[in-house]
Each structure stands twice: as C-alpha cells, then as structure tokens.
Design brief:
Blueprint (H helix, E strand, L loop, with lengths): L15 H22 L5 H33 L10 H13 L4 E8 L2 H8 L1 H17 L13 E6 L2 E7 L4 H16 L18 E8 L5 H19 L8 E4 L4 H5 L1
Parallel strand pairs: 4-5
Antiparallel strand pairs: 1-3, 1-4, 2-3
Helix pairs in contact: 4-5
C-alpha cells in the first residue's frame, strides 16, 4: 500500500514546518549579504555558503520525507500479518464513501479461533491468522471486472478481516466473490501442531456482506453486515461439522429505488 503523509506531520514547501525553515533561511541569507556589504565576506564566500546550506536542506527534507513515509506505512500495516490494518481500512473506507458510489463490503471471521489457541497455543493461532491473510490477499476476488480500482483487504484485529470492493453494486456479484473465497479456503490445509505431526486443519470462515449505497449511515450499515456475519457463524454450527458460510444481505426497496 502506498504511504501518504498525514497533514499534521508533513514537511513540504506548502506546509507550516517548511515555511518556518524558509523564514529562518531568508534571515540567514540577509545576514550573509550584510556581512558581504560590510566587507567581512567575499561574494564567492557567500555563494559557497548558500550552496552548502541548500545541499544540507535538500538532504534534510529528503530524509524527513522518507522517515515520515515509513512511519505512516508502518502505522497502517498489521504487525502480525503484514497486510493493511484498521487505520488503513478506515482511510480507504472514507475515500470510497466520499466517492458516493456503491461498493461491496465483506466482514470475515475465523470459525473456532479460540479453540485453535486453546488447543495448540497462540503461535498456532498466529499461524492461522497469517495463512488467512495470505489466502485473502492471494485470491483473485473478481475474475472479470470493469472497475479499475483495486480490491482492498485488511485485518481489523483479532480474527476479523474485511474486504472493500469498489464498483461492486449487485448482491449476487458480492455473493459470487464470497463463494470464491470459501472455495479458496476449502482447498487449504494447515498443520497447527508445533511439530507438524497432526493432520492438517482446514481454516473455515464466517462471511457477512452487503452493498454500501450512497448516503447510508456507515455505523448502521456496518452493524447490519456484522449481524449477517454472526448469522453465517450460527449457520456454520448447524451440522455435525463446522463449515464455512456466507450471508449476503439483499438491497432494500429504498436502496433499489435510489
């Protein structure tokens, strides 16, 4: 994910921080010129001083920008899995909402994650989370697409993952994406025992999803999708074995009319 600099930290020629540096430099240059007028410095000495100062400032700006870029990227990256975190998700979600166009939203939760931790230990839980993140990132969520914007996957924390899908405006299309994710996970087997001695475990997910429409209250909308995910989790426990399930909410009459 490309790093961007938050406004309050940025040091650019337009920012207050950089303007303060410019003001200080103007004063310093005036001092040099005054010293030259007083005969305390030659013209060549003044030019050389300004050149050295300019090189140092350019290096300082480059180092500052690089440092802020790394800091911003680290702040938006999940430390365990290396994929975008909640902060990155909120930023991308706000961008999509501001575009006032429909997009798909999925909430995904691991089934039996507590049992994995209790049975195999937290290292095994971390292994399951990393495998989940890698599978989601590696899945081609849409085989065909008209929208040029990239799909966005993030880990919100714990065993909860999300996907933002620009340009997806049809619940049937969103359901197809959820089914594709389920198929990807059905083919993955992960040995969670520390010595790798036990048979591999298939990671199973509960998926809730819906289409965000222009003007919807995000808090209410996300609560509805969260409810759909928990409904999928209940369905996953209805048989003799825990399964991967998805519940995609249909558009309401008001949303269809809009």
């Amino acid at each position: 994910m490309k790093a961007t600099f938050p406004e309050h930290q940025t040091t650019t020629p337009e920012s207050p921080n950089w303007r303060a540096i410019e003001t200080a430099n103007k004063w310093w240059i005036k001092q040099l010129l005054r010293e030259m007028q007083q005969g305390r410095r030659t013209f060549d000495e003044v030019v050389a001083q300004i050149a050295r100062k300019g090189t140092a400032l350019a290096r300082l700006y480059s180092m500052t920008a690089s440092h802020l870029g790394r800091a911003e990227q680290e702040a938006q990256t999940d430390a365990l899995t290396g994929i975008p975190n909640r902060a990155a998700f909120e930023k991308r979600r706000e961008q999509l909402v501001a575009q006032e166009r429909p997009f798909g939203f999925l909430i995904m939760d691991l089934n039996g994650f507590k049992q994995i931790n209790d049975t195999y230990g937290h290292d095994a839980g971390d292994k399951a989370l990393n495998a989940t993140a890698a599978t989601l990132i590696g899945t081609n969520l849409r085989l065909e697409r008209e929208d040029s914007e990239a799909d966005f996957v993030a880990r919100l924390g714990g065993d909860e993952f999300v996907a933002l899908l620009p340009g997806v405006s049809d619940p049937d299309q969103l359901n197809s994406i959820a089914q594709r994710i389920m198929e990807e996970f059905s083919d993955k087997s992960l040995s969670l025992a520390e010595d790798g001695s036990e048979e591999g475990t298939t990671i199973k997910l509960s998926i809730g999803g819906a289409i965000y429409q222009k003007g919807q209250n995000w808090v209410d909308f996300s609560h509805q999708v969260d409810g759909a995910m928990y409904k999928a989790k209940e369905q996953s426990k209805s048989g003799p074995e825990v399964t991967t399930q998805a519940v995609i909410l249909p558009l309401t009459r008001e949303e269809v009319a809009a």
